[in-house]
Fold this sequence. Notes:
The chain is mainly alpha-helical. The chain has a domain at 3-189. It is built from ten helices and no strands. It has helices at 3-38, 55-82, 97-119, 125-132, 147-154, 156-163, 168-185, 206-215, 226-230, 238-245. Helix 1 (3-38) packs parallel to helix 7 (168-185), helix 3 packs antiparallel against helix 5 (147-154) and helix 3 crosses helix 7.
Amino acid sequence: MTMLAWTLAEFAALYGAVYAVNVAGYFLVCGAIDHVNRRNPERRIQKNRRGDKRIREEIRHSLKSIAVTAASLSIGIFAVSKGWTLFQVWPLTWWTAVPLFVLCMVLFDAWFYFGHRLLHTKLFYKYHLLHHRSVAPTVWSSDSIGLVDTAICQGFYAVVPIILPFPPQILIAHRVFDHVNGTFGHAGFEYFASKTARYPWPLLCATYHDLHHSEFKYNFANYFSVWDRLLGTAHPTYDRMVEAMEVDPAPIRLAGPPAPDLGRPAPRAAGTPAE
């Protein structure tokens, strides 16, 4: 077997494993959060709108987009492990793990924000439209994204490690965190409303991204509100909404039978994308 064929076989094996683990994680995390959602209907963010009819379609599209995310992550891990980077890989120690993970988060958030803004331009929105068909997002919609859309937002894993070579463990840990965070962000239910999720803190809760799906032109960031606040794209009522949710929140039920969700979808206004 030639060196090129061996290298391709190595990458194919890595890609297969990364894709399989991502798919398994998708069903595990989405299923777990959906279990909690069904027992806490009073925590639904959009009280009179449902996205349940799109779940099968969201799962189908997610399995495709995860293939692109897995390819991007595999390229980054493979390049770093082979030394195909501009600089030497940062050493991973007990002292560097947390700073490197935080740096990865900060850089990914900036990458995601500006890539997301690009996808909302007239030229690129056609690639992002699929994701916004989930006006009332569900746990299954986080990865329900077009392939070009995914390549732009998840291309971070393939590009940045070549320039700033994070250890593979940091890339993997970040991908796990991003998946869990993204699933909660699309869950349609709020569990993390607190003072740290609103100004002057830069952190977010699920309501932040839910507002992006329901109103389209606000809240483009992923982890922090810094870019949205600096560039004027933060939703004007987000902070007040979070503050209101902090007052006497209902206890979170993790077990027991699903609770009845008595809300009914509101009539859809003309010109509003279907859920």
